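Internal QA ticket QA-208
Title: Verify multi-chain structure generation after dependency bump
Assignee: T.L.

Test input:
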Amino acid sequence: MKIRNRVGLGKIQLDMTPMIDVVFQLMIFFMCTLKVTEPEGDFDISMPLGAAAPSADTEAQLPPFKVRMIADAEGDLGSLSFNGVNLGGGAQAFAKLNSEVFRAINALKAIGPDQQEKQEVEIDPDYNLHYRNIINAIGSCSGRMGPNGIPVRYISKIKFAPRREP
Amino acid sequence: MKFKPANVAPPELDMTPMIDIVFQLITFFMVINKFDQAEADERVTLPKDQLAVPPAVHRKDSFLLNFGYLRDQKGNLTNPEPFFFFGDEQVPLAQVRQRLRQEAQFYQTIGTDMKEVVVEIRADADVKSGMVQELIQMCQEDGIGFQRFALKATQKMIE
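Actual output:
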């Protein structure tokens, strides 16, 4: 007959130290790495095929705001114009563009409450223009950052004009 | 009179916590590194903008294209021509059409509506704008048929 030895059977003690160590390590790691790299965002954009044919949404609406961007020999922004009005070059041009779009949006609101949502911007850059200028122009047309860090949106429909030859 | 305790056992170092931590961190970094390689390519220096915020709704079907330059450690260009980075493979703009076609075929095979697929373009800040337009044109060609595009940028923090 088999007799079990019941002597010496104690409670198994779980050592929590490793788990706590790991949790604290990971927590410190995530805290340290938070926002070390700037987060990525994006802008939706469209590009009509071939010659610009008005889409159903924009038909019988106001024509798109036109942003023409001319590159200098280095590929930087030489000059920028908004609806034919020259806003100059360099970083100041984007601030002016932002103000002009804001002014135009206010004029649209006077026409109708939903005009702002329907309005499009057409960006027409030179082939050699550095891509960073496109993003700056799209950002300037999209809106501005409010004082409390919440973006104020101007225009969300942004499209490219047909590509210019190099 | 002072007595010394007899047979003092040497203290035992429990290595389990350290091993746990090391393995956890190694696993974590391995997973993160693979994820990064599959998505964003660090060779691409994105332009910055304050309003470049991540999309509010997670995109179900999206396809990322990294388009940038090869640079040395100091950041100088080693090749004036930009490339698309697919892992370790570098494809120039003139030859990317085949890749786009393959991606489009993949989405068509699994029955995804091409109107739902967003092509996310991570282009270097110094790339020529016309090349990005050319890429979008290629994406819209017959036999490829992507229709939605998003231009990636780094979110510029408020100073």
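Spot checks passed. The helical segments of chain A are 17-33, 90-111, 115-118, 131-142.
Status: verified.
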